[in-house]
Amino acid sequence: MNKLSTLLVLLVAPAIGRAQLSGYYNIGGSTPHYAGLGAAFDDLMAQGADGDVTFLVHPGTYVGQASLGAIPGTPGMITVRSSSNNAEDVTFAFDAVFPLPNHIVRLDGTSNVKFEDVTFHALNDSWARCIHLTGNTDDLKLWDCVFIGSTSTNTNSYFERVLVWCNQNELNVADNPDNLQVIGCEFRNGYQAIEIDAEGAFGARAQNMMIAENTMTDQLSTGITVNNGTGEITMNRITTSAGDWFVGIRTSFFDNGSKIHRNTIQAHAVNGGCTGIEVGNTQNTTGNQIHNNMITVGADAGECWGLGVYNLWDMSIIWNSVVVLEGAATSKAFYHLSNFADGQDGVIRNNLFINYADGPALESIQAGNIATEDHNCLFSTGTVLAMTDSVEYADLAAYQAGTGDGASDLELDPAFPFLPDLHLNSCALDGTGEWFPIGLGDIDYEARGNPVCDIGADEYTFTSGTMSTELDLTSDDIPYTLTAPAGSGYDWSQGATTQSIEVSTSGTYSCQFTDVNGCTYTVEWEVEVEIGTAVEEQEPEDMRPWPVPATDRLFMPGIPTGTRYSLLDMDGRALQHGTVVQGRAVDVSGLAPGMHLIILTETGRVLRFIKQ
């Protein structure tokens, strides 16, 4: 090779090595371009992008942190997705021990990023965020992902355990993330699932967000929090019984025609209060809506609010089913808590406000804050049906006479067939609502009657036949009590004549009865009992296996010699058994990559570790 050729090679080689990324790249697998997400993102920031870039992540657990800023070049959509299109096959995990940054992925001013079909698992009990975003992180899409957080019940530094977190308001700069989409994801544990705290100075908002069709389970305090945003929160399912206090959906300054609709919330708090939806501060904007939500809340002792609102402007609250199952006698199914006259701001129609905890079905501190209240069903098991301006009304007639509201309201117990599910079958309520021009149907997108419709989130036609539901149980739930609605004349398919029966096996159980409103029909449960190991992830802090991740050897410090153990995969399948010998490693070289469990036989304690 002559000197000129050598010089050309030296000049061209760096240019090839520094070419901007474009097209498809493998993370992991048999022919990887990158060993992990952090390396891929570092290269993307160093080289830039030209057009769309897709990182195909092959099955396995990838331990580490990754971050992106404003990507150099002319990037298109940056996609990170499982090569198998299955979120359970790919896990991004990290044990973010303080003072390390608290995230698995950090996005700061990064536009057009999509995560699809991947799992994020925050391993630390206290320092346990999955995604942290700030700046103009526009057009972020989280589609069909799984987020797993801490199970700690410690209420200190709670914001460190929010699974998807934006704290732009703390920076006092209105570089809010616009067009955020969180769709079809599953959130497990953590203090909160999603908290978007955008900057709101001078009316700034995180625009056009869509939080839809997500499942949120066992968060400690809140499912979704949005401050200073616009968009829709819809078709999410939020369930928990894990916290001292809980709010399913909480928004403030979520306005300019924003909608909270068709969400299902079933929540119970152990000690403190429990609220289904809390909405405030929509003043000076129009077209705001809360409709077709199913809300069931309860607490061991605390005060519950099914639907709480304050400081509103042009808010339509239509077709919601709201039930307080239990809690303090001060609980309210609907509560307008503004303690000042902030205008006639609420149109409240076609709702079910039901309080089985002896508190009022409806309470408004300032009566004038409700513009219209009519065609609602109010019911309380207590002595006060409604309260406005501190005046208590024992029944519907007294409330109508004292306030002039609710001329077409009803006062009766809907007798829900399958609490906490709020779908209805009532001959007394069928067709008692009045059509209203919002929404495209009920919670299941079934068409509403016009001009006559049903009250509550469920549009239905009463049947004197059979109402059926499926019920999946584990061996830990057995025996399980099936309870028919309040009424009389119970005739179970198994021969019982009581309101409730206990079941322990799979099968079909049905009961014909007449409910408290004189409606006769049959309720039926298709029960499936899954016999298996209902393993709960609970890892003592002083017994954490190491190293993390493990390759071929695993040590278990703090566990006495002679302790018997079983090693399982995350589906509960036993892979090997043994006895602990301190200082001697357990051979895990033959295990598949991913999360595994160790059950200590004598105590039942569960330890977790990741196999690389």
Question: Mean of residue pLDDT?
Answer: 89
The total of helices stands at 3
Give the helix level as a range of percent: under 10%
Return the structural class.
mainly beta
Number of domains as seen in the coordinates: 4
Q: What Rg do the Cα atoms give? A: 27 Å
Residue runs with pLDDT of under 50 for 5 or more positions: 1-16, 533-541
Task: Give the SSE layout.
Blueprint lengths: L2 H15 L3 E7 L9 H11 L1 E9 L2 E4 L2 E3 L4 E10 L7 E5 L10 E4 L4 E4 L2 E4 L8 E4 L6 E3 L2 E3 L13 E5 L14 E3 L2 E3 L3 E6 L8 E7 L2 E3 L4 E13 L2 E4 L5 E9 L4 E3 L2 E6 L4 E7 L7 E4 L2 E6 L4 E7 L4 E4 L2 E6 L5 E5 L9 E4 L2 E4 L6 E3 L5 E5 L2 E4 L5 E3 L2 E3 L2 H8 L29 E2 L17 E2 L12 E9 L5 E4 L3 E6 L7 E4 L3 E9 L4 E11 L22 E2 L9 E6 L4 E6 L6 E2 L6 E7 L5 E6 L1
Parallel strand pairs: 1-2, 2-5, 3-6, 4-7, 5-8, 6-9, 7-10, 8-11, 9-12, 10-13, 11-14, 12-15, 13-16, 14-17, 15-18, 16-19, 17-19, 18-20, 19-21, 19-22, 20-23, 21-24, 22-25, 23-26, 24-27, 25-28, 26-29, 27-30, 28-31, 29-32, 30-33, 31-34, 32-35, 33-36, 40-45
Antiparallel strand pairs: 36-37, 38-39, 41-43, 42-44, 44-45, 46-49, 47-48, 47-50, 50-51
